[in-house]
């Protein structure tokens, strides 16, 4: 027994040393690719998920609705049709895509270009910004859960809070500063419109979710997934659900995002000009499980880099301390509350500490 423990401790010590070595380069996964590696380090090896199938049918992806928002504010009958589709998608898939959402395609393209420009700067320039200090207005690193997750993900990320207090322009890198702030304004407007439609799909007043401060905070995560020489051994992002109210995701043309539906991974194929919208854990909590925060992942690709920008409607670790529980109007004798009331910050802290280990953080807060 003593021998087993010492071997285990030795392996763990070696792993921590390798993690620190990788982290200390401050060059992220892109730094590994720039070195021309052909074998990925074992830190990135994910065990195969034997219990989940991968869909081989491209047709199934069509079931994730693409919803047209073009006339939603002009035609009441069209609006009702959109509300019905959003309700169905939120209950069944937890995901849908939106087109004609009001954000110009030029803004989407400029944002992808700006994110790419940041990552493709000289490593020495980026090193100064590499940090794990959540108090910084701009947080750039590789794998936020580097010391808690079972295996690392093949991606680098930068994060900033875009609302309620947007960063000062000088706190953002010059190569993507203007477009990030412009996109933040655009996506906030879209998020409020989506929360109105989601409120109505719950049978509530259009402003209900907004008045609960579901759109008060906005966090932007800009991901860079370099081409991977051994994509079958790792993942771009481990299976997880999002710790927010709502996520609006811009993905490029490469693809790799998959949603877990009936124990099968379904591709969410990139749709030109579309944004992917998904229900977050907090929306599942306050709707008392009516809307589903569904697990999803990103596979590693042999082609790259893949760029994606996820905007989370949440105050995250900067929460006001306000408590959230299941919405009273949705509860009844037959539908009692399934969760205790919690603050966003408490949830976000637990989520970060737990890391992306493939389990839902929601279960921890069930009654």
Automatic annotation (TrEMBL):
GO terms for molecular function: dioxygenase activity; metal ion binding. Keywords: Iron, Metal-binding, Oxidoreductase. Transmembrane segments: none annotated. It comes from the Eukaryota. Residues 214-316 form the Fe2OG dioxygenase domain. InterPro entries: DIOX_N (IPR026992), IPNS-like_FE2OG_OXY (IPR044861), IPNS-like_sf (IPR027443), Oxoglu/Fe-dep_dioxygenase_dom (IPR005123). Its cofactor is Fe cation. PANTHER family: 2OG-FE(II) OXYGENASE FAMILY OXIDOREDUCTASE, OXIDOREDUCTASE, 2OG-FE II OXYGENASE FAMILY PROTEIN. Belongs to the iron/ascorbate-dependent oxidoreductase family. This is Fe2OG dioxygenase domain-containing protein. It comes from Phaseolus vulgaris (Kidney bean).
């Amino acid at each position: 027994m003593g021998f087993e423990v010492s071997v285990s401790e030795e392996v763990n010590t070696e792993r921590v040393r390798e993690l620190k070595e990788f982290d200390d380069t401050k060059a992220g996964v892109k730094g590994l690719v720039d070195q021309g590696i052909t074998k990925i380090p074992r830190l990135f090896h994910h065990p195969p998920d034997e219990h989940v199938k991968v869909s081989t049918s491209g047709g199934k992806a069509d079931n994730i609705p693409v919803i047209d928002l073009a006339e939603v504010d002009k035609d009441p009958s069209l609006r009702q049709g959109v509300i019905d589709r959003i309700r169905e998608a939120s209950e069944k898939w937890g995901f849908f895509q939106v087109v004609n959402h009001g954000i110009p395609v030029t803004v989407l393209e400029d944002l992808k270009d700006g994110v790419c420009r940041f990552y493709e700067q000289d490593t020495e320039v980026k090193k100064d910004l590499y940090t794990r200090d959540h108090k910084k207005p701009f947080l750039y690193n590789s794998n936020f859960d580097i010391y808690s997750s079972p295996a690392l993900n093949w991606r680098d990320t930068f994060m900033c809070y875009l609302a309620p207090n947007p960063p000062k322009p000088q706190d953002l890198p010059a190569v993507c500063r203007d477009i990030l702030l412009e996109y933040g304004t655009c996506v906030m407007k879209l998020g409020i419109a989506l929360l109105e439609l989601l409120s109505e799909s719950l049978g509530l007043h259009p402003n209900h979710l907004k008045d609960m401060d579901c759109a008060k905070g906005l966090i932007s995560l800009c991901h860079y997934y370099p081409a991977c020489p051994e994509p079958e051994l790792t993942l771009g992002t481990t299976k997880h659900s999002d710790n927010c109210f709502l996520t609006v995701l811009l993905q490029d043309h490469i693809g790799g995002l998959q949603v877990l539906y009936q124990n099968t991974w379904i591709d969410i194929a990139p749709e030109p000009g579309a944004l992917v919208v998904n229900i977050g854990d907090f929306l599942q909590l306050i709707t008392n499980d009516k809307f589903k925060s569904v697990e999803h992942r990103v596979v590693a690709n042999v082609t790259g880099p893949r760029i994606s920008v996820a905007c989370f409607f949440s105050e995250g670790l900067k929460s006001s301390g306000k408590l959230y529980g299941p919405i009273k109007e949705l509860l009844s004798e037959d539908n009692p509350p399934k969760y205790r009331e919690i603050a966003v910050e408490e949830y976000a802290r637990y989520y970060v500490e737990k890391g992306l280990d493939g389990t839902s953080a929601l279960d921890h807060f069930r009654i």
